[in-house]
Fold each of these.
Amino acid sequence: MTIGIVDFGMYIPHYRVSRAEIGEAWKLEQAKPLLIGERAVAGYDEDSLTMAVEAAWHALEGHDPAAVDGLLFASTTPPFAEKSSAAVIAAACDTAVSRTLDITTSLRAGTAALGLGLDMLRAHSAEQVLVTIADMRRPEPGTLLDAISGDGAAAFLLGRGENVLAELVGAFHLSDPVIDTWRRSDDRYLQTDDEAFTNQVGYFSLVQQAVKGLLAETAVDPARVKGVAIYAPDGRAYMKMAKKSPLGMAFMQMGMEGPAPYLLMHAGNLGAAFAPAQLALLLEKASPDDYLVLVGYGDGADAYLFRVTEAIKGRPEKRPLSAWINTKSQLPYNLALYFRENLRQKPLFPPDVDPWTSLPLLHRERNELLRFHAQKCNNCGALWWPHRPNCYDCGEQHNFSTVRLSRRGTVASFVAEWAIPTPVPPVGMITVDTAEGARITNPSTDGDPRQLTVGDEVEFALRIFHTARKLPHYSWKVRKLRV
Amino acid sequence: MNPNALRDKVAIIGMGCTQFGALQDKSFAEQGLEAVNEALADAGIEKDRIEAAWLGTFDPNVGGSFPGYAGDFVADILGMPGLPVTRVTNYCATGMDAMRNAAISVAAGLYDVVLVLGNEKMRDVASRDSLIRQVVTTGHPLVQKGLSAPGLFGLMARRHMAEFGTTREDLARVAVKNHYNGARHPKAMFQKEISLETALNAPMISEPLGLYDCCPTSDGAAAAILCRADLAAELTDAYILIEAIEMATVTGGRYGRRNESLIGFEATQLAAKRAYAAAGIEEPIRAIDVAEVHDCFTITEILNYEDLGFVPKGQGAAFIREGRSSLEGDLPVNPSGGLKCFGHPIGASGVRMTYVIYEQLLGRAGNTQAPVNKNGRGLVHNLGGPGSVCVVGLYHRP
């Protein structure tokens, strides 16, 4: 039975910092050739978990989340050192999975998770596996890595049978204890040492070995490979790799419009999500019978060969991946530093002001707050979110059915709040009429709410509202529809 | 329900009101006692005549820790052991709800003379540290998190603007009028007029509401002595009668309800309808001489014109634009300066509004006196929360 990718999605956060500005801030004169384009920066209310949810919903659009029975989350930067992000993502995607797993600590986590998901399918331990990969790496401010990195995510819905739009042909794995980047459990920032040496014995060597291994394993003619999604530390290393690779033809065909240069220019090196996001970009443009290679790197290398199937033509309609690249706003570098707590500023609130919270309440309302379920009155049809014991409109008690909100709606009214302190004032408070007929008033995120007008299309995005008692409180904020 | 159960059965024989503002030299107890003593002196009775009391205070913790969580506070400041005192809290409609409950007890024949004290102290904190702190530290940890008081009303303003073409300038006119009036009332918090430009150019708070669209946070207290109407003439020379005090509550989840119009307050409409029915009023604009309405934000006053039936829905902006609510207009609204200029110590406001109407009906309003020449009738409108609690009172000269 065919095993492979059923659908895919990507996510790039809304904010961009110009690399030239970062170079100017730190006088990175010698790195100037690399300081072109922009770096995508996750908002102050985002983390790898929320970005994974964004990409996951992008992949899930047009599919039934209830059919997903395995969920993997890969990242070098999970928000929790203890507690599974995958379990939260599974709930936010309204899946019914019982198997969730976080795969972390290696740059190769993304491609490793994909391999594991495919193995789960092969072993018949799952029917559909949602693999979510997100990263917001932790470079030290002022380093080249700081300028080149970018925040973002990719997601793949893996399955079996005729819905598979990219079939797994073969894989090759390598593990190696080579020292490249590392970060000890308590380190705040990534460490690197001799990069020239590392690239030579690590990156170039291991990736070449993996590609050669894959080609031998699958016996595919390299000339037939149409696209390569490959990790690269930066643009220079990518170019060098492209020249030397046995897949040189594919690199040549992709040219500078290839997914790696495209992402590096507009978003950055997405860490564990970098090669997977490239694969999503390749798939979006692929035709049946195209062969695509995916290569992940970090403490070894993973290489996969996929063959695109006829099912690619039946992929559900959804926003193009480029929507995430093209909808954006510029962020001053100082705010990017502040978002990641790399810059001190007068606290927004007095230190004793902590939002009220309640674990029983969060548990009681988990289906509303995370799964985004509304309730529909079986008598009069009114929708309510969050849940209530009675229908206020008709008086009916305890007679509701559950409606999963599509996270889309229109603006009924809104204000731009200047009085409520926020890192990028003003924050909006938006009253949204959801597509299903509920009304929800919640804060805005990503961009200036003053650009909205009554009637505009908006969407809900999972975000951190606050961290009362050091616990990230996730629920749905409102932003202008990114298309 | 018997709409006539209250009508003309209860008199207001004395009232008191402190200066409103940042009362830095006065404690919660001091400002409360000052209002009570003034009301007693006005009525010309001794405190021993008080048989029961109602304390209206929204949240004594807004400005730190104060007494006032319970009724014992009134027994304490009056030194009256045994006094039955009920504390009322019902959002910003607290003051008028205290009035309502006190009036009901007298009309029911339980007591002859009772006291109502509305008291609030909000300025014993840094200026940004009261209601904003509340928004953050209380309420649901996620749903509508960060929705502030100006935000609640700003959402109405935006929608009213979108549907009826109401402008920020219309809102500013409300502030200009209320500052004009307030500057003439000796007890108002702000003793200054403002220009349209000042209002329009002020910093934004909850856009489209700017600073001058918002009432201030204030300290202040107001008190009323109520008695059986048939005893009023024996006890004092000048008094007014309660025609009706009607209340309505609707869902506090208004901003999560699809069937809300976002262009008016149903609670106001329902409470007004009941009060008008009780007083036999068909055309409010002709029947009412003067009104104190809840202008927590300028948009609220414009919505009130419509919801109280002064003008049809959508014409509130024209009512202020045409000057009909000014002191010289055909229905002067907020001759005191309203919450906007007089100040808004939450639990005190409803009682303070009654104080202003009492002054007006007795012809004691000095520079802010409106011509009371229709029926000698005044209206008080007190709105609370996200527009979910409303009390409308009608008073008239005997």
Note: Residues 360 and 366 of chain A are 10 Å apart (CA to CA).
Amino acid sequence: MLKSFTNLVVCEHCDATYTRVALAPGEVARCGQCDAVLYRASLLDVDRWLALTVAAAVAFVIANVSPVVKISLQGLHSQATLWQSAAALAHGPAAPIAVPTALAIIVVPFMQVSLLLWVLGHARRGGRRAPGFRLAMRMLAGLRPWSMVEVALLGILVSVIKLSSMVEVAPGAGIWATAALMILITIVASRDIHWLWEFTDRGRPRGEGRS
Amino acid sequence: MSRPAAPDAHGSVAHQREEAPMSRPARALDLGLVSCHACGLVCEDVLERQGRVPCPRCGAALHRRKPDSLARTWALLIAALILYIPANVLPVMYTSLLGSGSDSTILSGVVAFWSTGSYGIALVIFIASVAVPCGKFLSLGLLLASTRRGSSWARRERSKLYRMVEVVGYWSMLDVLVVAVVAALIRFHGLADIEPRVGILYFGVVVILTMLSAMSFDPRLIWDGKDE
């Protein structure tokens, strides 16, 4: 078995090696050499984290079911959901771009929320590791850069302004849900997920290894 | 909420700094350690003896550095740079109003906002679709060139530049999403229609390629050269 050192941390930006120290909740340890964040102590315990993830799941459903923008032009009405927006790209010569767009604003956030629900739901029962925990954690790390809810929100706002000179524009319920999802997903799927490894490490008392 | 902790606010970090104030902290490479890129676990480095070693905790393959970092980063960056030309030249959107239609490119969209007095929104689109991609090309080019030479110039600042490229990069997808939302809304057949055009495909691919390029770059290479 390969030897590993949970008391050490290596800066992923410059390879400097440090001994881990316990941090107070909310504190951040930075690399003395390149100033990158080494790790931070989460403000959330597993129960709160799970609660916020459930809230993110609710926001996700509302954001995807209800229209984000409604417009009217001379008595004609039209509205669009996130999915319809991605699908609108699928017509004409630019069709292939609809796939990454749908992934970035719908599929990836959905997977992040689902994986977190799965992992946290098990972890809160005595620090247990869910079936497929290793794969889920690797996927969560890999998915993070491709989640673009905040870009979607800015895109919706720019579109509203762009169209407001041409048609009557009204925000739909989806826009508020997207804004809520943006905030919640930033909190729950941030880079602090590493400590779940230590939290769910068997043989350790609960709550330790948060540093 | 999170307050940044200065390195000297913490025992061990301060300890290492005090021991050797003029030299750099110990590197994992020199200590015979390797950290997992997926879960961050620090492991003993046995890559010499065994070719492929999975992380004992999460199962991802361990690497000292990202494989072929510089070559991959260059390749993806050059591909992005080439596609950036059709992305700007070709129309991204087709607007038809009461039978008369017109194509618009990314820059003509910015100009249209600017000329109607919407300076703020013109600036947002300009930053997301022109300033950010161009800044990324320049930054990654600079990082690649200086890293290949093993330069010790401004290492800390170059590390920060890399982190900025990582954080800012995906905002360029803004234009793709604007076209998507607008095209989904304006479909009053005959009266007013907006359709995506091929330029937006090139533009989206440019954004994805620059993101992949930034991900292939290993910022640890900045620190691998000798000290002056």
Note: The longest helix of chain B spans residues 119-148.
